[in-house]
Amino acid sequence: FPRESALLALLDLINHADLESLWAEDETIGWIYQYFNSKEERKKMRDESAAPRNSRELAVRNQFFTPRYVVEFLTDNTLGRIWYEMTKGETSLKDTCRYLVRRPTEVFLANGELPPDDQGQMTNDLSQEDLLKQSVYIPHRPLKDPRDIRMLDPACGSMHFGLYAFDLFETIYAEAWDLQAAGQWLATDHCQLTTDYETKDALLRDVPRLIIERNIHGIDIDPRAVQIAGLSLWLRAQRSWQAQGVKPQHRPQVQRSNVVCAEPMPGEESLLQEFLEKHLSGDPERQLLGQLVRRVFDSMKLAGEAGSLLKIEEEIAASVAEAKKAWLARPEKKQRLLFDAGPKLVQQDLGLNVAGITDEAFWAEAEDKIYASLRAYAEHAENGGGYQRRLFADDAARGFAFVDLCGKTYEVLLMNPPFGDVSTPSKPHVDRVYTRTRNDIYAAFVERGLGLLRPGAKFGAITSRTGFFLSSFQKWREELLLHDAPPTAFADLGHGVLDTAMVETTAYCLTKVCGGLSAISDCVFFRLLDHDDKGGCLVNMISALRQGQSGRPI
Description:
This protein is α/β, with parallel strands linked by helices. It has helices at 4-14, 28-33, 39-48, 55-61, 68-86, 93-96, 128-133, 160-181, 193-196, 200-215, 223-244, 269-279, 284-299, 303-306, 312-328, 359-379, 386-407, 427-433, 441-451, 474-484, 537-546, and strands spanning 106-108, 136-138, 151-153, 216-220, 258-261, 335-336, 345-346, 410-415, 453-464, 487-494, 505-511, 524-527. The strands form three sheets. An eight-stranded mixed sheet has the order 5-4-3-8-9-11-10-12, sandwiched between helices. Helix 10 packs antiparallel against helix 11 (223-244), helix 15 (312-328) crosses helix 16 and helix 16 packs antiparallel against helix 17 (386-407).
């Protein structure tokens, strides 16, 4: 620990009058963290190995702060655009979101209404001015309870996207109340804000807590970045309460956040075995839970290296489906293995009826019981091992929180993923699971992110621009960007966006659709006027997207 005199000198520097205005900015802490690791350390890592040798090197090499204007562009055209479409343009976000892309002749379709039959006719012979005058038909997007609009950043760093999204969510909650109070929100839309809160002020007082507990989700492999992200969101909530004049003792208590570190489950085999024997053994139901826990622990070994790229939810889904199938097919009064390995279950009638519930509900119920068992284990302190048991239980709970986030689906996904090679330990996994996008980690992140989105959800990312014109990314363009999620806004940014990173970047927004490009009418392209487009990215991007579209222009 630093000497007192050194600590006081440091505090004097931090509290210097010249820095006072900086501490009021949401992103200051994250911006500082970019320089926590020196450029000399980064250079040393690259000199010693072309590819990151572990997750820490991957994190340090890609520790670049996302500029605010990029954050706003991507968030405005994903989260902002979703609420804009839900309200059919009747939202203040169209004025406050500086980069929200809107066409002057947008027509919002009613539920079940289709655009005119001539909407898809050839328009290649029209000028850009004429194209802008054409009507653009926006498919119906039903209003949704803001508490159920989930946003994820799968490589969140210090949570810069989440901090700006916080601002938009505050507006969304306030407008949702007004819409429901005015009778414009039908009961069939499953929004109960005016029922759950007596007044609008009561809702607004609770909104900062709701945003942290219900809306904003983040994953990262860097535990320090995750700590900063959690702190930043907490400070943002305090600023909101302060602006409302809510005294600290009257502020709602934030019970949990959804910012997690991707890391393996605790590795003490003896503690795991003790936990399983003492708390998840005996009757068939507990043994079933014990075998699920063992499966999760085994599946999470790569979490610290692969991070969000680890499809842990698929491992869990397979285990849960297998458990349900074995349970339902069990012979009466006979022993049967639920999995290929593990203790045998003596069949008893415990009321565990899984026939009428989904795998998701089955897992949620099982997880609640596992959490309860972990709490009981943490409180068990015989033989002086209470501290180690508490650490084990806390680490395991954080691991299950990662599983939770991977098992959800999202309305919005925003990210500035790492670029280049994956870490050496995770390469076999990425090569096996991401066969279409394994040539660059950012492409794999795009594929993974799209898999976590609901149909109609919005995706925003800043990545290297190589994917839009190199032949090695052909499947990425054709199968993901054309078929699964065509682009709706594309900004060609070039060099110098991510501080000292030697990479040319693009920022783009996609919309996940069912059935490919047919649901998307057009895409808006931007490029910096002073950017020398030597790679021909814009031209190649348009050409690539036009292929196979049966003449539909972009």
